[in-house]
Amino acid sequence: MDRLTHGEHTTQLIYTPSFSCLGVSSLPSVLALTDLGWHLLEREHDGALRGSGARHAQTLWFELSNVLLLGRLRIAYAVDGATAHATIEFNTVMNALYVEAIYRLLRAAPDEPVAEDAGLSVSFAQLEALPYKFRSALMDFTPPGEALTALHAWPTTHRRIALWWKREVAPAGVIALTARTLLLVRDETVPAALRRGTARYGKLAHFMVRSGELEAQIAASNGIANMRFRVHRGSDTAALQVDVPRSSEAALRSLLARHCTPVSINA
User: Which of 14, 54, 87, 185 has the smallest set of CB atoms within 10 Å of its CB?
Assistant: First the structure.
């Protein structure tokens, strides 16, 4: 309660108990969403409380990962001219609570969408063509009341090291857009301590509000293409990079040019 300002009202409160999975141990935390922003209180190993938080106008994007029973939410936000991250680890039985928290924070963002994408929609055939894991992810993560207007999926990218050995350089993924939200979903692996081979065990999703504060660019190098997104909050800028196959460069260039505000699109 000490972190709330006078007149600030709580809209959602999530308590996360201590949890241990896949070699990761987390301590209890409380995430409070309010009409002005969000606050996170975490218990330290010495028993002290550590607090973080930001107003809606300072919040940049959300990253949600699910690997077996381990869930992790990272909130990127601008503070004192730099980008900071608040991280919550939880049992995936609580996943729906954190997805709802992301939806609430996306709806509360002060930015207005750049365009309504009038008349554009994703067909059933486009969804059916996606791998099941990404089709189900879009069903789980698309904010309620928002229709998909564009999407593009890409396969895992490998680089041949030797005749008999290939190394993965970029996981498979999909980018999807609604009139208000940009959603990125990619494969995720288990933590290195328990990794076995190259099997995929979960998903990594990023959520961003589409607005004049969001810029995109794509550039190719070393056989792959790099999608980069920049989110501006006043004088603060934060960047997110996603590696994709070179074969998807043209399609993604077209999608970004049509639906985002490109900084530059380099061949």
Answer: 87
